[in-house]
Known about the structure:
The complex is a heterodimer of chains A (303) and B (283).
Chain A: E1 3-8, H1 16-26, E2 30-34, H2 42-46, E3 49-60, E4 63-64, H3 74-78, H4 100-104, E5 110-111, E6 114-125, E7 128-135, H5 142-159, E8 164-168, H6 175-181, E9 186-191, H7 195-209, E10 215-220, H8 226-238, E11 242-247, H9 252-258, H10 263-266, H11 271-285, H12 287-290
Parallel strand pairs in A: 1-8, 1-9, 2-7, 2-8, 9-10, 10-11
Antiparallel strand pairs in A: 3-6, 4-5, 6-7
Helix pairs in contact in A: 5-6
Chain B: E1 2-6, H1 14-25, E2 29-33, H2 41-45, E3 48-62, H3 72-76, E4 82-85, E5 88-91, H4 101-105, E6 111-126, E7 129-136, H5 144-151, E8 159-163, H6 170-176, E9 181-186, H7 190-206, E10 210-217, H8 223-231, E11 235-240, H9 243-250, H10 255-258, H11 263-282
Parallel strand pairs in B: 1-8, 1-9, 2-7, 2-8, 9-10, 10-11
Antiparallel strand pairs in B: 3-6, 4-5, 6-7
Amino acid sequence: MIRELVILSGKGGTGKTSLTAAFASLAPNSLLCDADVDAADLHLLIRPEILRTEPFMGGCLARIREQDCTGCGRCLELCRFGAVRKDFTVDPLACEGCGVCVDLCPEKAIDFPVQQCGRWFCSSTRFGPMVHARLGIAEENSGKLVSLVRQEAMKLAEEQDRQLILTDGPPGIGCPVIAAIGGATALVLVVEPTLSGLHDMQRVTRLAAHFRVPAMVCVNKYDLNLEITAEIEAYAREKKMTVLGHIPFDPVFVEAMIASQNILEYAPRSKAAEAVKRIWAELTARASVQDLGIVDFNQVIQY
Amino acid sequence: MIVSVASGKGGTGKTTVATNLASVMGDAVALLDCDVEEPNAHLFLAPEIEEEKEVGVFVPEVDQEKCIGCRACVTICRFSAIAAAGKKILVFPELCHSCEGCLEVCPEQAISAGTRELGKLVSGKAGQVLFHGGRMRIGEAMAPPLIRAVRTKEEARPDTIIDAPPGTSCPVITAMRGTDFVLLVTEPTPFGLHDLKLAVGAVQTLGIPAGLVINRAGLGNDMVRDYAAQEGLSILLEIPFDQDIARAYSRGQLLVEALPGWRQSFIDLFARIKSEVEGRAAG
Lengths: 303, 283
């Protein structure tokens, strides 16, 4: 039974990627998955050796064939996204790929080619296999790519007999996050002790509650604000989320980033590294991670 | 002038810059919080809310009595939001992109306009600043439609500051498109640099002039600075890594209120952006 931990936060910049990379050192027999396809950074620490590259095909984009267009204006009338310009060319950034103009053009003058929106990769790393991706700039379909990356991670884990998938998740609560939560064994929420961090964590918690998935919380840079750290931990307990612990602010995380190492490789005896190890110990003691395929409903987020 | 504040990487300081900029410019500006998934601007500006509106989009509603089962709606839908199960037509509103293709092709007028709630559009005043913010419904997958709704408030003041979401995909593009200037906020770290390059790519795709703010300067290395020089990207402001600044932020306090010495820096930043934009308009 392959388990998957998805690391989320709500807010950006709380330390998800740094922590995921650190867990990779601590988890025997794991596989890394970078599901933050929009602004993927995990590879900067992990330095994967890419073994396989695949194109990611997203939706289609309308393209009007000038030579066949009679300028009747039907497409302009029909488009709900303002993607058809007055000169009967299509703005690719506005085109939603709905295909309505394509289907209803009286001259059938509109092509609808499928777009390559990005690429995904299977790689080998010093921690084991890794699946990651790069969404093209200004592209849509990030949720679809997140789902794909997670599916491929599961396949690779089965092939290579890996018991645990560590998934670095995206910020926010929209489609990439929704695509990252479904089917996860448990979530790890990395929260910063700021008003924004608490606010955003509450929103992602409400989203995650819909999925009936257990969640665990750790506070990063906790010594920045002890009151808010306490508020976060209290909120977590109220929602039946396990409090894993907290990590002090430490510039050594940035130094490790610059050295392309995780915190345990770069500064194994630092207080930050000790805190991460304690968090990992708490995490692996959790029933939801231990039990084989049994979801403990008393452990899921109680909203 | 409409300025969008974006980044690439999350947590670099977009909201910090946007809210402090708005605060010092007062009645000259409107602030639009377009990070509708995780809006934070209201935490710092504490606006008095005058209006709260539910924003919805079209989703089809099917009158099963009028439906003749021709499935034209199912055929046209590229998003699998409308499907046939035997004689019944099923709608999956969360998948609908509101293209209205089904409405258009139904031969029996069996489809009418229903609504899917996207979230709320909140409006008010934060001191002299006009505030509009979007707050996406939890469970809604698509941010861009609500972002577009927030941006309908763009012409309310002579100048608008948009607090954009993190990343470089469709929500950010929706927040940045058609603005006069993109202020990119970064941190001088490898992650900051990597994601800044993606953001610069997005800004170039949109053809909008940009400038840089380096936040938490001093915690990292010089690679962002070198990159900026290479790209001809002006560094318009640097905010140092500083415990007092971080603590004020953690409490939800505006930097220009906690440390009023910063007011002038943000006034100057706004003036620099304005002269860039006006320079281009003239030239």
